[in-house]
Amino acid sequence: MKSILILLTGLCAAAASSSSVKQKPNIVFILTDDQDWHMQSLDYMPLLQKHVIDKGTLFDKHYCTVSICCPSRVNLWTGLAAHNNNVTDLNPPYGGYPKFVWEGHNQNWLPTYLQEQGYNTYYTGKLFNAHTIDNYDDPPVNGFNGSDFLLDPYTYEYYRSRMTRNGAPPISYEGQYSPDVVAEKALGFLHEATLHDQPFFLGIAPIAPHSNVRFVDPIEFGTAAYAKRHAHLFQDYKIPRTANFNPDVPSGVSWVRDLPKLNDTVIEYHDEFQRSRLRSLQAVDEMVESLVQTLEVKGLLDNTYVFYTTDNGYHISQHRLPPGKECPFETDIHIPLAVRGPDVPAGHVAGVVSSHTDLTPTMLKLAGHDRYKTLDGFPIPLTEGELASPESGEHVNVEFWGRAIPEGKYGKIGDDSFPAVGNGTAGIAARNNTYKALRLIGSHYNLLYTVWCTGEREFYDVTHDPDQVQNLLHQDHAALRSEYQLYGRSFEHVVNRLDALLMVTKSCKAQECHEPWQTLHPKSSVKVLSDALRPKYDDFYTNQPKVSFSSCVLGHIISEEGPQDVNAWNDFVIDGYPGTARQQRFQWSGHWSWWT
Prior knowledge:
By secondary structure, this protein is an alpha/beta fold.
């Protein structure tokens, strides 16, 4: 009898454990490539609107933190800021799949964490740049029960893709439309996932609406290719003629301000460039509907979170720029995020500030894994209860290293000392495009502050200047700068606070990234910018170390990135002077005195 009771107890425990696993939500994550927010691409995806946005929540203040493909994706899938994951470029030595492996992330990222929680994990489409037909199994990508990856140098060729399935030698899909191939594979993995009792994660990364890229000499960045069934669409579309669209008066830092005004031929080409991008997204739109309908037929939709986002934004003609990304402008870093799932309000616009660093922590929390507490991001509030009193902050850390690369046929950036890219008359890559930036969004302010490797700085009040054409730190806008006030404080006082906060976010880790004001004020009630603007802190912020660079290097080299530590208020002084945040965190001395 005793042995029977022990057996029954074990069976009950196993059943309870199995039931617990089954109750965990499934996650379907769709990641497009270079999709814009500010040229209104979401308005041209009616099926996404119907099945995800109308049935879920749109996060209208969501940002990428590094506006280029591979670094953004590593940031997203690890939950670590780029300055901590150290994958900061498309290719070695500073980036790409080999760098991802070298830094140890192949064993420590979202899919491996989810597998620890009993999830089956699947992925198809683009993973990382420099993941190629030669190194696809050196080493194999870790963490997936099933995978089918697009491989360089064919990743961005819409009708010439090569893919590796579960680590097998690459297969050619010559003549087949890549987003359709990825959609078919995604539905296949979804079916495979439903054959098991475990919860599942399915990542899907079509290349649309990225440029069609051929890695020839020189590299060709053509318009996005689209399926023939969509060729008739959007014939009359034009890029919104906002204030920053090919402006009469230039704006931005020097390499942007020096760009010539675009002529009618280039403008016409750019409009068609964006039309092609929108057409390429129609295959993704159809895939979204197929996935949602399949989940519904299988009875899984009510227990599945569907995420939809992109790796980074995109500009075309804004600030006179040719097609591309890599800048700290809203066009490049402000991107779509929509989520539907259990307890996520339908037809809701969240209004909370979030970034790609937060997505892996969000999914780990959904899966019941506490590893998210050690990462640089913080879970995004999803449910109605969480959104009613969100624990989200006001800041987004943005950073970039290396060149700005023009795409399409036209454009010349920088000077002739930099290597040419593109086809025919395509342009010159701007090498001096390394910067650190801070987006700060509160109830009464919406700000962008950027420090460039050249020593140039930018400040935009996005509330009053949504198109970012008035850099108040440029001499052309000295009059506006002299009149500027926020909470009754002068422009100089505001910028001093922003620079100090950027000093924290540009090198923060874990909890410090969640609550950067606490590094500056660990023993006080300063939580947001308005708190820090109190006059009592004026001298404290004036005398902070300043964000700076020694040179415009192409990768994350800390020795070239100026001071790393801020002084902390913390109500203590050491021999009459505030110590660094790290000193005050880890040291204690009897001669410290209380500072009121």
